[in-house]
Amino acid sequence: MNHLFVFCGPIASGKSSISKLFATRVGATWNGFGSTVRKIALERGLATDRESLQCLGAVLIKDETVIFCSRVIELAVNAPNKPAVIDGLRHLTILQELRHMFNPRKVVCMYIDTPLAIRLERVKKRDDISPKQLAKLEMHSTEVEVEHQLKEIADVIIDNQSSAAECVDSIVNLVQKRCLQ
């Protein structure tokens, strides 16, 4: 299996935890769009709060798509016959660019869907974000694109209401059933 698995989903859906665990489970390399945006922000001397990173991400998508994708990929893919996992896909154009860059290798889009109540608990505990603050963040065009475009075209949609380990078990089973290996 030498696929590229990209994980997307709403804020606090569990993408990072699940994508890292999945990468470990299938022996894949891992990188995240968020960590790459953060590295770029630091290189440019920019703020690294969530809203600032969303704004920088939008600029990178609009003005530096290929360079941005290349940065993410170079940190995720270091073996041509090994699977790779990239966390935090937020844009349809980026998915299309990844599919173009990886052709003929398969790029599998994994959407992690988690109920709002669980996500609210997570952002409160992790970031001390209120429901009102989360609602504001989710009105950003990037988050709207995740919920309405990426979810519709995802190859796999996983319901993450249980533990990360159980969620990864479901993903591995689906990958095996769909002969993605």
Q: Percent helix among the residues? A: 55-70%
Low-confidence stretches: none
Helices and strands: which structural class? alpha/beta
Q: What is the string of helix and strand elements?
A: EHEHHHEHEHHHEH
- Main sheet strand line-up: 2-3-1-4-5
Distance between the termini: 4 Å
Nearest-integer average pLDDT: 87
Choose one word for the global shape.
Answer: globular
- Give the helix tally: 9
Task: Estimate the strand proportion.
Answer: 5-15%
Largest sheet: 5 strands, parallel
Number of strands: 5
Radius of gyration: 16 Å
What does this structure look like?
Helix content is 59%, strand content 13%. It has helices at 15-26, 33-43, 50-63, 65-76, 92-102, 116-127, 131-138, 141-153, 164-177, and strands at 4-8, 29-32, 84-87, 107-113, 156-159. It has 181 residues and is of the alpha/beta class. The mean pLDDT is 87. It is built from nine helices and five strands; from the N terminus they run βαβαααβαβαααβα. The longest helix has 14 residues, at 50-63. Strands 2-3-1-4-5 form a five-stranded parallel sheet, with helices on both faces. The protein starts with a strand and ends with a helix.
